[in-house]
Amino acid sequence: AQSVAQPEDQVNVAEGNPLTVKCTYSVSGNPYLFWYVQYPNRGLQFLLKYITGDNLVKGSYGFEAEFNKSQTSFHLKKPSALVSDSALYFCAVRDDEGTGFQKLVFGTGTRLLVSP
Amino acid sequence: DGGITQSPKYLFRKEGQNVTLSCEQNLNHDAMYWYRQDPGQGLRLIYYSQIVNDFQKGDIAEGYSVSREKKESFPLTVTSAQKNPTAFYLCASSPRTAYQDTQYFGPGTRLTVL
Which of A103, A105, A109, A90 is nearest to A26 (CA)? Predict the structure, then answer.
């Protein structure tokens, strides 16, 4: 089965500094990877996805993610963090169960805290 | 959250009661999903439906039931058989499941057992 790991429970960064939220994956075949963000007591919002093509994927709100096949990583990045970026971030991978249904498998989430 | 509504936002249940969580979407999506979110565990799939009148168990279906009588609606019932139902429940939809289509989420329902 496919899986993703988010090794950091929390990431702290000062406003204006670059941020990175880490994700590593374990898949057989080509990975389809996603990043979502969740604000308190809200649903998840889609940020970006990697299907194929360029290793640098640009998404919403100035976020981007770098796909690295050799390191099996898909880290989320932003050049300059905002206090409003503080939220819970989830990495996910598509898992094909062989039945035609392709579900998403989520990581445990990383809380990003941006200080003023 | 646009296009997917969940109600109620907060729900309190006494032990032994069944409760039903509503999920409606106006995105004309074929596939719908229910997830459970617990602190530190990410999201776990409860049930999913690829088409009207069809649904399948996910990873943690025990103690839950669903129906899919209309394309836009996918209600989840938390039964008294669910031993630890206190959690945040998220509904999602996507255009179809056979491709890498993005899932879009509703705002969630927080269920608390008293």
Answer: A105
State pLDDT tens for residues A38-93: 998 888 999 999 988 889 999 999 999 999 999 999 999 999 999 999 999 999 99
- Give the per-residue pLDDT at A41: 81
| CA distance to A9, A37, A74, A113, B59, per residue, from A81 (Å) | 18, 14, 18, 10, 36
| Residue of B1, B10, B23, B43 to mutate, interface with A, max A Cβ within 10 Å | B43
Q: Which residues contact B112 (CB under 8 A, 6 or more apart)?
A: B10, B11, B12, B13, B86
The residue of chain A with its CA nearest to that of B32 is: A103
The reply to whether residue B100 touches residue A42, judged by beta carbons under 8 angstroms, is: no
Asked if residue A56 lies in contact with residue A64, where contact means CB atoms within 8 angstroms, the answer is yes
Cβ distance A43 to B90 less than 8 Å, yes or no, reads: yes
Bridge partners of residue B102, in order along the sequence:
none
CB contact under 8 A, B42 and A106: yes
Model confidence pLDDT, tens digit, residues B61-86: 999 999 999 999 999 999 988 889 99
Cβ atoms within 10 A of the Cβ of A35, count? 27
Q: Which of A46, A52, A24, A42 is nearest to A34 (CA)?
A: A46
Chain B residues in contact with A2 (beta carbon < 8 A): none
